[in-house]
Amino acid sequence: MKYKKYDKFLSKATNNYRYSDCIKKDVRYVLNSYPGLSPELDNFVFNDGSEKKLLNLKGTIPVKYKGASYNIPVCFWLPEDYPHNPPMAFVKPTPDMEIKVSEKVDSDGKISLRILTTWKEDPEASVNALITACITAFGRNPPVFSKPPLNQKLTSKSQIRSVVEVRLKAKLNEEFMKTRAEIDSLHETTKDLLDSQEALSKHLTELQELSKVSDSQQETLTTLRTKFRNSIDSLTSLLHSGINPDEIIHPQYPLQQQILCAYVEDASADDSIFFLGEALRRGRIDLEVYLKRVRQISRKQFMSRVIIERCRRQMGLLEISKS
């Protein structure tokens, strides 16, 4: 088989490839299927100007067009992460050929087929499958055509017209494809701009709504601040007026006055018992003194609560809960 003579070359050329075994297997299959191709190791120049030494398959592939067979010159560069990423495929016209620009091949000879755009989703994708796709596509529309010999003497108008037509068609087709690509790019840019405009309009509407809410909250805050300041002014005025706190509440009836006085004594008794407990805890008084004082205060507190209950009954008020 043809590929056997390239075994040593392939082993050396794929040293820097991550999946060298897979590459050697695919390349051997291609070399055995297409005798017009040969492996080479050369520098590939990327779009950013950087270079990398890559393995490529260069030569011709057989294409049938309108019943005749043609050998189309091509070159397939295998990236370092092949087969995860597709090869870079090019048509390489000989000096007596010109590239026929189309959707499948640009003016630089770069091949653009569906298999290259869906490579990662296709488990059957390989360099051999790519070559098969090229043969099928080129069989419908050849990527190159022959240049008329420069030394051929054009003696008739029909010959001149034929040559001019071929060149004009090629040039017009190239310009058409370039213009079409530019129009497609403009359509995409226009779509992006319209989408951005819609998004900006939506954000602007949201900001306007937030601004309205903010203005409303600002008005509410201003109103509350005014009320707060007025309350502070009123309290400050009362503080400076010299009002006696005991004179603020004025019971209307004698029974209410009795309830108020009894309630004050009841609350005072609670406070006294609390502070006596604190004094006992800290050792300021002994237990005997504590118990004596608590008994005295409790008797007074009991009488205060009795007075409160009796006065409330006489006034027809609800009884205080015992809980």
Topology (elements, then pairings):
Layout: H1 7-13, H2 20-33, E1 37-45, E2 51-65, E3 68-78, E4 88-91, E5 97-99, H3 114-117, H4 127-140, E6 144-146, H5 157-240, H6 254-281, H7 287-314
Antiparallel strand pairs: 1-2, 2-3, 3-4, 5-6
Helix pairs in contact: 6-7
Written description of the protein model:
This protein has 323 residues and is α+β, with helices and mostly antiparallel strands. Among the domains are: 2-146, Ubiquitin Conjugating Enzyme (Roll); 245-315. It is built from seven helices and six strands; from the N terminus they run H-H-E-E-E-E-E-H-H-E-H-H-H. It has helices at residues 7-13, 20-33, 114-117, 127-140, 157-240, 254-281, 287-314, and strands at residues 37-45, 51-65, 68-78, 88-91, 97-99, 144-146. Strand 1 (37-45) and strand 2 form a beta hairpin. Helix 6 runs antiparallel to helix 7.
